[in-house]
Amino acid sequence: MPTSIDNLQDDWYQNCATYTGAYQSGRSSFIPNLLPQTAVQFSVYQTLEILHKRLGNEALRRALDPGETFESPARIHADGSWLKRSNMVGVNVRTIGSFWKIISYVMTLPASHDSIHLLPIWEPGVVGSLYGMVSWQINPEFFDVELARFVPALDSVEKQLKIVTNLLHAMGRTVGMDVIPHTDRFSEMVLTCPVLFEWVQRDERGGNPAILIDHSNLVYRYAEEAVWQFLKFSGAADGSPLTFTKDVFFATGPVTTGVFSLTDEQRQRMLFGYPHDYGGRLNRRLALIRHLVAQGLETLPMTMAPPYRGLHIDPNDYVLDDFGQTWYQYAFDKPQAMSRVFGPLARYRFYESKENNQNWELDFDRPNLPAWNYICRNVRDCQQKYGFDFMRGDMAHVQPRSVGVPAIIDEFYDPLLAIKKYVQASGVPYYAFFAETFLAPPDTMGYGNELDHLEAIEADSTLGDLQSMIVGSSVFEQQFAAYIDYLDTRRFAPNFTVMSADKDDPRFDEFYRTGNLFRYFTALFLTSMPSYVGLGFEVRNLHKQRSPNEEYTKLYVFQIEDDRQPDKVTHGPFIWGQNAEQFAAIGRMRVFAENIWLDIVGKETRWLVAPNGNLSDKKANYLAWTHAEPTGYVFVVSMTGPLPKTVPGIADGEIVFEEEGCRIYKIPHQES
C-alpha cells in the first residue's frame, strides 16, 4: 500500500508513546514519524509534558522564565565562523501561528538541524509585509493565547518570544533574527526620526501630473517641521507636556535640556502612544501620514540593483488605498536588467548626497552617522533582550558604489557589517552573519564582484541560489561546482539551500518536481557545507499544476486580502503539504543520520565524484564523497535517474542505507 498522510497519522496515534519516549529519554534527538502539521497542533500541556521529561524540571523552569537567559550553544565559539557548517531551518512564523508553536515543530527536527532562522519578528506595515517593519515592537499576531492561559505569567508576545529562544537554546539550537536595513515607507521610525531617511516632495496640484519637485538633501527638515506642527496641534499621544523645542524632539540619541532627556521610546510614545495600544498608534500614524502627504512629503522608496539611484514618479501608475490616499509608483530614469523599486519600503539614509543630490549621487565619504548609530543600537538591544545568536542580513547584496568594492574597507562600508561588529563588541563575540545574497555575476544585484562584497562585509555564510535551479541541469551542476570552490578559496561559506523560507512560491514549482531527495540528502550529509531548508519542505506537494495560494509559505510573508491580486491573496491559514512519501523518505534519512552523526559532523569532504563544471567532460549523473579524515562512510546520490548497481571504487563497501537515488556505504578499511 502506498504511503499516505492517513497511514502516517494512524501510525503516529498507535505508536506515539514509543516515538515520544525515545525523544524524552534522550535516545533520539527528535520525535520520529511525527508530521509537522500534527506537531503544531499539540496542546500546550502536551508540549510542556514532553519538554519536562526531555529537559528535566530545573532546566524547563529556567527556560520558561522570561527573566532568565538560557545559555546559547554558540557561546563556546570565539567568532561567528561556526555558522559555516550549520544546517539551518527557516520558519515563517505566520504559517504556524505563534512563536510557541516553533517549539513543537522543532521536536520533529533532528539535532543535525542545529540552527533556527525566524523570518522577521517585527510589527508589519503596508500589506502586512514581514519585511516592511513599522516599528521595533514584536509582531502581536505571534502571541499564543493558549500558552498565556496555561502559563498566565507569559502574558505578552515579548515574554513568549524570550522563553521560546530560551527553550530552543535548551534544545541545542541556535536562533537567528532577520536584520532589515529598511522599513515601511511611513513607519514609526520614519516619522519620529526623519533625518534617518531620504525624503522627497512631489506636486500634483492644478490637475498636473504628479512630479518630483524636490529631492535635495534637506527635504527631511520639511518633514520634521510638518511632524512637529502635527504634534503641537494634536498634543502628545501619551499626555506629556511639550515644553521643549522641535530640535530637542528630533535630536538623535538622548538629549538633555533642563529636566528633559528624550529617548527613542519617549519620542515614540509622544507621537503615537503606548506600545501595546495598537489601535491608537495606528490611528495617530494614519492621521500624521495624511498630514504629510497633503504637503507632498514622502520618503523615497527603496531600490534594488544598479543603478539604485535616479528615480521619477510614473503619474499613470498608482494605487488608491482603503483610506482614499493615492500612492504613486516610482520608476528608474535609466533602469538596468535587475533594477527594482519596492514601493512600500524605505531604506535608511546611510550616506549624505553629493551636490545636494542634484545628480542622485551618494557621498560614501560622508556617512549619515545618526542612521548607523540608530540601527546598530536597536538591533543590539533586541539581540540582548531575546538572546539571538546570528542575524540574517536582508538584501545583503546591496553594494551601491559604481566603482565596485573598494580596496580599503572602512567602518562605514556597509550597515550589516557595522551591525555585526557592534553586536559582537557588546559582549557576543560569537554573533554570526548569514547574508541574503544569490552569488550573482558581477554588476548584477550590486556593483562589482558579489564574492568580494561578501568578504568585505565579513559574512560567515550566504544563501546562494541552488534552490532556484533544476537538479541535474547544466547550470545547477556548474553553480554547485563553483560553490565547492568557494568553500576552499573564499572566507564565506555558500549554503546548499534546499528551499528558502521566503521563496516557497508558485514561480519556483518547477524546481521541486524532481530532485527533492537529492537536495535533502546532500544538504544533510555534505558536512563541509552549510545548508538551509524552509519549514514545510518535508511534506511539500509536487505542485504539478499551480496549487491554491494557501499551500505556499511565501504568500504568508505578506497579508493580502484583496481579490484584485489573485496570485497573492490568501484566505485562511497555511495548508500543509500531503507528500507522505517524501516525508517518509526524509524521515528514514534523519533516523540513519542519528546513528552516524557524531562520526561525521563537521568533517571535511573528500570528493570521489564531484560536481563537474566542465560540461564537455561529463562522466556520471551522480555524486560521491567521503571524508578527508576517514569515517568509514561513503555517500552516493543521483542527480538524474537511478544509481548504478555498483559504484566504481567502492567494490568492498556494504550498503547500509538506500533510498531512491540515495545510498550510503560502510567501508571496513577506508584509507584517507
Morphology call: globular
Helix content: 25-40%
CATH class category of the domain at 36-44 and 57-179 and 392-600: Alpha Beta
Number of helices: 19
The whole-number mean of residue pLDDT values reads 94
Side-by-side strand order of the widest sheet: 22-21-20-19-5-2-1-24-23
Query: Separation of termini?
Result: 43 Å
Beta percentage is 15-25%
For the largest beta-sheet, the strand count, sense and barrel status come to: 9 strands, parallel
Gyration radius, rounded:
26 Å
Q: What is the name of the CATH topology of the domain at 36-44 and 57-179 and 392-600? A: TIM Barrel
Notes on the protein architecture:
The chain is of the alpha/beta class. Among the domains are: 34 residues, no CATH class; 341 residues, TIM Barrel (Alpha-Beta Barrel); 62 residues. It has a nine-stranded parallel beta sheet with strand order 22-21-20-19-5-2-1-24-23. The protein has a five-stranded antiparallel beta sheet with strand order 25-26-27-29-28, with helices on one face. Helix 3 packs across helix 4 and helix 4 runs antiparallel to helix 8. The two termini are 43 Å apart. The mean pLDDT is 94.
What are the defining features of this structure?
672 residues
Give a brief description.
This protein is α/β, with parallel strands linked by helices.
What order do the helices and strands come in, and which of them pair?
Blueprint: H1 5-24, H2 36-39, H3 44-55, H4 57-63, E1 87-91, H5 93-96, H6 100-106, E2 115-118, E3 122-124, E4 133-138, H7 145-150, H8 157-170, E5 174-179, E6 182-184, H9 188-192, E7 199-203, E8 211-214, H10 219-234, H11 246-250, E9 255-257, E10 260-262, H12 264-272, H13 278-293, E11 297-299, E12 302-304, E13 311-320, E14 326-332, E15 340-342, E16 345-347, E17 351-353, E18 362-367, H14 369-386, E19 390-393, H15 415-425, E20 432-435, H16 450-456, E21 461-462, H17 474-489, E22 493-494, E23 496-499, H18 516-525, E24 531-534, H19 580-600, E25 605-609, E26 622-627, E27 633-638, E28 654-659, E29 662-666
Parallel strand pairs: 1-2, 1-24, 2-5, 5-19, 19-20, 20-21, 21-22, 23-24
Antiparallel strand pairs: 3-4, 6-16, 7-8, 7-11, 9-10, 12-15, 13-14, 17-18, 25-26, 26-27, 27-29, 28-29
